[in-house]
Structures are given as C-alpha cells and as structure tokens.
Amino acid sequence: MDAMPRITHRFEFPDRFVAGTVGEPGQRTFFVQARQQNQLVSVVCEKQQVEVLADHLERILDELAKLADGSTAIPASRVVARDLDPLDAPLEEDFRAGTMTIAWDGQLDAVQVELFSVVDAEDLDTPRDPVDFLEELDEVSHAAECLSVTLSPEQAREFTARARALVHAGRPACPFCAQPINPEGHICPRANGYRRPLFA
C-alpha cells in the first residue's frame, strides 16, 4: 500500500518561532512552536532535541559569521532572548518530533529548519540511533507530518538564546553523579553514604 501524503506545516519568516515548556522542573513538556498570523503549530520535543537544535543553529551562524564577506548580515550571538512570553494559546500538540534537519538557503540568506514527526520503528528500513535527531533520512521519508520553518539569521539567534536558557532552567545537576536533582530530594548513586569531594 502506498504511503499517505505527508502533511507539511510551512512557515516563511514567521511572526514567532520559539521553544517553551509546560509543567514543573523534572516533569516539563518541551514544545517548539511556530506562529504566523492565525496559523499556529505546536510540536512536542524532548529536552535534548531542543538543545541539539539550538546548538546546531548557533554553530551554523557562527561559521557563517566567520565566512561572511559583508553580503549577509549575521547578528552576534546573544545570551538573553527578547521574547520571554509564554507559549501561544491554545496549546495543542500537533505532533511529536522525531528527526530534525537544518540547512542554509543561500538565495534567501535564511536558515531552513524542519521537524519531522516520530515514525514507528517497525516502519523503518534500518534501525535508528535514538539520540541522532539530525538527518536520519530513512525516518524523514516515512514521517507523516513536518514543520518547515524559514528563519532569518536574527530569528535563528533569537530562538537559540531562548532555547538555551530554557534548557538550563531545569533541575540543577548533582556535582557527584551529574544526574538532575528533584525538588523533593535526590538519592545519589555515587555518594554511597559519604560525600565525595568536589575536586580530587
């Protein structure tokens, strides 16, 4: 049986493209959300996916800034995002992200970001690494939905600043085992009844 046509939610230089969360630290659900006028798409992501997306966007823009001959304006990296507002309502999951792709469009001087829906492992021709979110072409070909967003370098820097702050705003890491510390307490597997020194 032929595969169903893919549903693509396409945004070119959207009014808003942000990452955000719902819930308390340790139980947060991460979203990537795009809005253009009355069109709104919200994609559920893993925390690690948001971090990977931000890191790769930052790396691409940093490389372009080094290679730029003045024809393309690449803004400097920023620490604090201008957009700190909550996610747009109504917040409804359109799909859950699996693979992501990032590309530079030299004609538009823009970054192309695509998030593809999760694919059932039984539908894949080859097994995939669950940590490798970028450019799993086998999974891309089977994805039922896609969020495709064209961003200016300024919009990409803004997304990166907010996404990185969001990722680091969660639970603090234990200095001994590096696992996140829950608000109600933390049983450290490396402490074993005594505190290990911070520095050997």
Describe what you observe in this structure.
The chain is of the alpha/beta class and 200 residues long. The protein has two domains: 161 residues, 2-Layer Sandwich (Secreted effector protein pipB2 fold); 28 residues, no CATH class. Helix content is 21%, strand content 27%. The protein contains three helices and seven strands, in the order ββββαββαβα. It has a seven-stranded mixed beta sheet with strand order 1-7-6-5-4-3-2. β2 and β3 form a beta hairpin. The protein is globular, with a radius of gyration of 19 Å. The termini are far apart. The C terminus is likely disordered.
**Count of DSSP-assigned helices:** 3
How many individual domains?
2
Rg from alpha-carbon coordinates:
19 Å
Level-2 CATH architecture of the largest domain: 2-Layer Sandwich
| Level-1 CATH class name of the largest domain | Alpha Beta
Approximately what portion of the residues adopt beta-strand conformation? 25-35%
N-to-C SSE series?
A: EEEEHEEHEH
Structural class label: alpha/beta
Number of strands: 7
Main β sheet profile: 7 strands, mixed
Q: Percentage of helical residues? A: 10-25%
Report the end-to-end length measured between terminal Cα atoms: 61 Å
Biggest sheet, spatial arrangement of strands: 1-7-6-5-4-3-2
What spatial form do the alpha-carbon principal axes imply? globular
Q: Low-confidence stretches at least 5 residues in length (pLDDT < 50)? A: 193-200
Give the mean pLDDT: 82
CATH topology of the largest domain: Secreted effector protein pipB2 fold
